[in-house]
Design brief:
The complex is a heterodimer of chains A (519) and B (173). Chain A is mainly alpha-helical and 519 residues long. Chain A is built from 20 helices and 2 strands. Chain A starts with a helix and ends with a helix. Chain B is mainly alpha-helical and 173 residues long. Classes of the chains: A mainly alpha (519), B mainly alpha (173).
Chain lengths: 519, 173
């Protein structure tokens, strides 16, 4: 029950007017960026990172908590109304959600999604709070070999899960690892890969990498297909958002099923919530077939929105636990948040709970508060959020370009950073166009130095004995989970891909038919 | 979105997807190849401090080889693929003019930022960027651009205490 006392202490820390204001602003910004088509929560966090420079760590991290969950809520709004989910996680929920919107039940779909995200996030955060001491105890037994195994695990998992092809994932990862090498080597002091540019001695700032790849890359990508690809007009949210008792009875089991599926996926570093949300979608689909639900796949069934949305946010919640307790980022957004921690000289992991216990528990408390703030912002006001979809694309992306520039210039007041930003933006354009995943680059940049340092440390401890790398239970478990997980995920992915292809086809035919009718 | 724009977009081709293998996808291999060669060349020419094993050049060698390996395997994959193996995004016709405009506005911004100052350059970046992305109402866009640049300047220099270059307007204030 020690956790409960700590958590109450955390609430005391979080419930100051200033922190609540920051949380509210974060939730507002996160939702806004998430709603805007094509922008996900990782972009929201990336653009916000420079702004939080001059804040105190607690306030900044509370704001991030708001942005993190806000982005997830927002991603689903654009997915349901426009069929343009802001992140891979929101794809599974937008199949049935968009069908409900086409059927004139957009507001109900949005409410189901918001409540699902709330349920998933709430349960996951609770589980994280009560299991974190045990995870920390486990993590405190980690030595160099274990950390190296963990990094390898994260590398392979993220390349495997996020990418269409494993090869492309590894290519992205290698680019990230290369970027991480630039600068002075922390072990020996050797200057590496700088081509004698003094500005590069400190390495390339992670903010430049994230803003370049995510924000400027997206601007260039939009420009490159402006006149060749048409956007679809938005659907105005209509109908009442409130669910009646029958609908709640339909949705509640789906929310719980989704949460149960999402939880374990965030705790193991398998990268993103794409897999669990698809798993939840397939489950709901099977159940709908069994009870002969005529709505599922035609007019849109409420369970088909509830399950995946709850799964997505449950994964996000437990991913936060993995980030704090082990220091392992499991998605692009988590990777950027890890960078934020490092900015304040903090290293997430077991030591964080010892050294900055106040901060950790305040952060947990603000995750809970953030969920309530978001529910209040999203349930009644979803139709208002949908109005953001009317901002013309050219103004939106011009604004993003200016924000990217100011954010990067603010780091060090250097034009060299802006040149790097331009280069990374072009790299981001190439990666988007040719389907290379972006998350492995960020994981590579952030965990690369750790992997290298721990490898060199292990080798000197082991004195040439290669078996040192598999000498402890933790390393053996990690490597075997990796192999088993790879096999299982390969199977799931194969099935999801066929589901995805079929669904995209039917949803777009339905949407095209709707367009015809409305003309 | 104004009535004008909706009509405008309706007249444009819905999408132009090529049914050939995207030759551009080989750029990925080329970029990986250049990165790999760079990593190996830098590793070989490194002035190493200390005599630890493995030294600071070990990881660069490993990553260089990894980059070369993925470059080769991805190009082999390309040569064995058919058009359908590539996602639609990579087969859509490139809008070089719009992209060129967007990149050029950013390059111009970088070159002129320190001489001209934040307010002028950020306004110009916003306006040229929105123009490249199909903005039609040039005057009102210009007003929004100046407003946006001014707001970012206020937030960053007054709110967060970060210095943005004042440029030629610096003497006036």
């Amino acid at each position: 029950m020690e956790q409960l006392v700590n958590l109450i202490g955390g609430f005391a820390g979080a419930l100051t007017p200033m922190n609540l204001l920051l949380l509210f602003i974060g939730a507002l910004l996160g939702t806004a960026v998430g709603v805007l088509p094509g922008l996900g929560s990782s972009m929201a966090v990336a653009l916000l990172l420079p702004v939080t420079f001059s804040m105190d760590p607690t306030g900044a991290l509370i704001m991030f908590a708001g942005v993190y969950y806000g982005g997830l809520f927002g991603d689903s709004i654009s997915g349901i109304l426009l069929n343009t989910p802001g992140s891979a996680t929101a794809i599974a929920g937008s199949f049935e959600g968009h069908r409900m919107a086409l059927d004139g039940r957009a507001a109900k779909a949005l409410a189901t999604s918001a409540l699902g995200a709330f349920t998933g996030g709430l349960l996951a955060t609770t589980v994280v709070v009560f299991t974190s001491p045990y995870i920390v105890k486990l993590a405190s037994m980690f030595g160099p070999a274990e950390y190296f195994a963990l990094a390898i695990f994260a590398f392979v998992a993220i390349s495997w899960v996020v990418a269409e092809s494993f090869l492309k994932g590894i290519a992205s990862l290698a680019i990230g690892l290369l970027i991480a090498l630039i600068g002075v080597d922390s072990v020996s002091g050797t200057v590496r890969m700088t081509m004698d540019v003094p500005h590069l001695f400190d390495g390339i700032d992670i903010i430049v990498v994230t803003v370049g790849l995510l924000a400027l890359g997206e601007v260039f990508y939009r420009a490159s297909r402006r006149r060749t690809v048409n956007g679809r007009n938005s659907i105005i949210a209509s109908g009442r958002p409130w669910l009646n008792r029958k609908e709640i009875r339909q949705a509640l089991p789906a929310w719980l099923r989704g949460t149960a599926m999402g939880l374990p996926f965030g705790a193991i570093p398998a990268g993103g919530a794409e897999v669990p949300s698809f798993l939840a979608y397939s489950t709901e689909k099977k159940l709908a077939e069994r009870r002969k639900d005529a709505f599922f796949g035609t007019r849109g069934a409420i369970q088909g929105v509830a399950g995946p949305e709850a799964a997505g946010n449950a994964t996000a919640g437990s991913a936060m636990g993995a980030l704090l307790a082990i220091g392992l980022p499991t998605s692009a957004t988590a990777a950027i948040m890890l960078a934020a921690f490092r900015q304040y000289g903090m290293q997430p992991g077991p030591l964080l709970f010892d050294r900055s216990a106040d901060l950790v528990w305040t952060l947990f408390a603000s995750l809970f508060l953030g969920l309530f703030v978001l529910l209040a912002l999203n349930l009644p006001f979803a139709p208002l959020w949908a109005k953001l979809l009317k901002i013309p694309t050219h103004l939106l992306y011009a604004g993003i370009a200016v924000l990217a520039a100011v954010g990067v210039y603010a780091i060090g007041g250097s034009v060299v950073d802006l040149l790097l930003l331009l280069g990374l933006g072009l790299l981001g354009l190439m990666m988007r166009r040719f389907d290379l995943p972006l998350a492995p680059v960020l994981i590579g940049v952030i965990l690369g130095p750790m992997a290298e340092t721990e490898l060199r440390r292990s080798v000197s401890v082991a004195e040439g004995n290669l078996l040192f790398f598999v000498s402890s239970p933790v390393t053996i478990i990690l490597y075997s989970v990796l192999i088993i997980g790879a096999l299982v995920l390969a199977g799931i992915r194969l099935r999801n891909r066929t589901v995805l292809k079929r669904e995209i086809k039917t949803v777009s035919t339905a949407a095209a038919a709707e367009d015809e009718v409305s003309r | 979105m104004s009535e004008n724009q909706i009509r405008d977009e309706a007249q444009e081709p819905s999408s132009a997807v090529s049914d050939k293998r995207p030759v551009g996808a080989l750029i990925v291999s080329a970029v990986l190849l250049v990165f790999g060669v760079f990593a190996l060349q830098q590793a070989a020419s490194m002035k190493i401090i200390g005599d630890s094993m493995p030294g600071p050049d070990f990881f660069p060698y490993v990553i260089g080889v990894l980059l070369l390996l993925t470059a080769v395997l991805l190009s082999l994959q390309w040569f064995r693929s058919s058009a359908e193996d590539h996602p639609q995004e990579s087969r859509t016709t490139m809008d070089w003019i719009s992209l060129g405009g967007a990149v050029a506005s950013f390059v111009g911004f970088i070159l002129l930022l320190e001489p001209l100052g934040w307010l002028i350059c950020a306004s110009a970046l916003f306006w040229f960027m929105s123009f490249s992305l199909g903005g039609k109402k040039h005057l009102s866009n210009a007003a929004i651009a100046v407003l946006f640049a001014a707001i970012t300047q206020i937030i960053f220099s007054m709110g967060l205490g970060i210095n943005l270059p004042a440029g030629i307007l610096g003497g006036l204030s």
